[in-house]
Amino acid sequence: MAVEQARAPDLSFDDIDPRYRAFIEDYIGLYGLDAAAFCRPLPRADEMFFKAILPNYEQDASIAAFKFTEATLRHFDTVRQIVDGAFGGFEKLGSFLDFASGYGRLTRIMLQKLRPDQIHVADIYKDAVDWQRQAFGVAGTYSTPDPAHLQHADRHDLIFVGSLFSHLPAELFHRWLAALYGLLTPGGVLAFSVHDESFLPQGEAMDASGIRYFRFSESGSLDADIYGMSYVSEAFVGEAIGRLPGRPAWRRFHKGAYENQDLYVVGAPGKDVSNVFVASTPMGGFETATHLTNGTVEFSGWALERTPGRRLTRLSVQLGGETRLEVAPDCERPDVLTHFPKAANTPIGWRFRLGPELARPGEMIRLRMDSDSGLFGCAYAEFPPRFAMTYAGWSRRALRQG
């Protein structure tokens, strides 16, 4: 099976449904990024995409590619806020290390903010590092099962570790934290994500130590003794950071990375991180489309601001790059909380109507959700409705029509 997978062709964005490609290019453009530079082929060996994202969307490569893009933009929102708060912008950032970088979904964007010689990637999969070196021209380091064997002499201003500590047992958690903290420049910042204890599987209980480790993951090749699924309390992480030299300052951001992980930002000795604030990208989706008279369609769905103390300030319907409708929330949607345990805010429901006087056949509908955090999220559909992008946990939910 592994040999057959390795020989299978990479996934080209050119091969996905053109309507989904239009969604992707539109979303990337809203960030002021180059879609062509982002939409390079996805290598078949990328376990995150082909063994996690794609199966969760019924092997539909088009919706999976959109979800890959959506998640990467949220990923970038996290990194950008750290850079702005800790360094004052990308132009003041020297060296960036993406540790446990996989096949470089974040690198696709970072190359549009930094020079290749400023970007360093590391991963336990040597093929992933080699692929990034060749595809992106960045520097790369092979990671190791044991942090004591990591061979990396460079120092970095920002080290970002997305979704490695959410897979480590306790002993490796402490050792990798110390090893990566030691790679910071004076004044540098280490940021890493974890599964908070609120995401512990139903029926399971936290260990008294503050970490619970399960010997399974999406990886089909890493030893479950060193890479599984871990859930931690803030007390556990705080104690781990307290072991680092120099009594570093640190901050925790609820669901600050991805949609289900907390983010910790740790400063090098003497580094002030009080100006760092990381909000979560608003999320939402279309759910129903009801056909009324004279070609009018009523759409409905949900939206969620996940950041504590923040709120959605505007929902707007945009077609052809122009706002056609402002949408007022019409109810609360506590049912959506099934997919967002212990969310900081209650999801809201919305609905709006579009007819031929506002929308042309085949036109792309963009629902934009703006927050007072300064971040925004988007959901997409087509007029008249044939399908839509939405979100319900990690599964695909088809647009319900009536």
UniProtKB/TrEMBL annotation:
This is Class I SAM-dependent methyltransferase. GO terms for molecular function: methyltransferase activity. CDD domains: AdoMet_MTases. One of its GO terms (biological process) is methylation. The keyword Disulfide bond does not apply. It comes from Phenylobacterium terrae. Gene3D superfamilies: Vaccinia Virus protein VP39. Residues 97-190 form the Methyltransferase type domain. SUPFAM superfamilies: S-adenosyl-L-methionine-dependent methyltransferases (SSF53335).
